[in-house]
Amino acid sequence: MTVHYPKIIQGGMGVAISCWRLAQAVSRQGQLGVVSGTALDQVLVRRLQDGDPGGHIRRAFDHFPFRKMAERLWQIYYIPGGKSKRTSYMTLEMHGQESPRELKELCILGNFVEVFLAREGHDNPVGINYLEKIQIPHLPSLYGAMLAGVGYVLMGAGIPLKIPGILDLLSAHHPVSYPLQVTGAQPGDDTLIRFDPGEFKERDLPPLVRPRFLAIISSNTLAEIMMKRSSGKIDGFVIEGPTAGGHNAPPRGALKVNENGEPVYGERDRVDLVKMKSLGLPFWLAGGYGSPEKLKEALRSGAAGIQVGTAFALCEESGLRQDYKKALLKKAAEGDDAEVLTDSQASPTGFPFKVVKLEGTVSEEETYNSRPRICDLGFLREAYKTPEGTIGFRCAAEPVSVYVSKGGKIEDTRGKKCICNALIATAGHPQIRNSKHIEAGIVTAGDDLSGVKRFFPSGSLTYTASDVIKKLLNGGCDEFL
Q: The pTM is what?
């Protein structure tokens, strides 16, 4: 059977930047729309507390197969008309090795809703993107996405060896487990995260369609490891270079930085595309490939296509809040290049993180310093073994004294930003603290941020996902299309 692969994969960016509206718009055009699977439990409850504008969540809930679960969570979190602007969002418990049942239910429903809405109105596949390093929500999140018929799962920021086999098991509604990375754990320690769909099903369901799995990688070595050691079938790779937005893989070898403190990448960080082609699986190139010329180059190299992030992040359908989007589009239109810094300190994970210098965001030193160090979402926390032998969690962006008391090193806290709260604020759902402090956002983008002006229709300062696709496909690549 001949498989039709998309030439363009829309990146799964941030928290709700790659939202269902964007993914739907891309998939309607015959390319692969991808929703971000990060923190969808939080996104769901905040949208409900905002009053479910447009009634989209209610519509998705009405199609969810487990009606009692949906109605119970609706009653808890939905606020008719939305909360007042100065009222804080309800705080959820943070994920742990044994997360509360309600938190797992929110993961199932949040992922179901996002994929269901992205799939509405067309028959083309939709994908979902996860970060391997945010491990604990994986199992219920994947199940929720599969209940909604997700067509592709993409995962990077780690080595997701176990995910392909988990997709096989979840498609049959079987129990699954996932090894949590725990600093200081010893062989024999119980570090597994467990999930049994049978505990949540309210009725029997037929087997689910197993989505295709694309591993997001940055080296030939990682591709070979995935091919040899994966627990199940890998359907392809996305090769993401260091110019891509979001978290980047650190450079290979000893860390060197430039005059701005950015990590320096070299020849060891380049992927050998001839070797990639020899693996026999389709691959897409990402990081600076958002132009017709780069698509043409990718196809000539043997790639199935490209993954594009930044161009879609600034289009009309993305979830990026309007004030940030307008400011960046204005800079692009005026030729005022917004500075994109590969910040080696910003993320609590220790991975380099692309940060756009933008007024009113935590990229500004004053805004960053004005925020109290609070960790109340916890997606990027590090799991560690406590002196008592249990699993604890710490975050380099939490209060310094708290982090150090958990065995963390004080030098690891310098420059660390609360990426979790900032990214949710960037999607338009900032937490309000003490009725006055509003969480500021953080914008991430690839190095080619100023290049989005190539997608502006004549006389316009904004553009759509369709404009991006048409420009990429019809801008000189006809011989391949």
A: 0.93
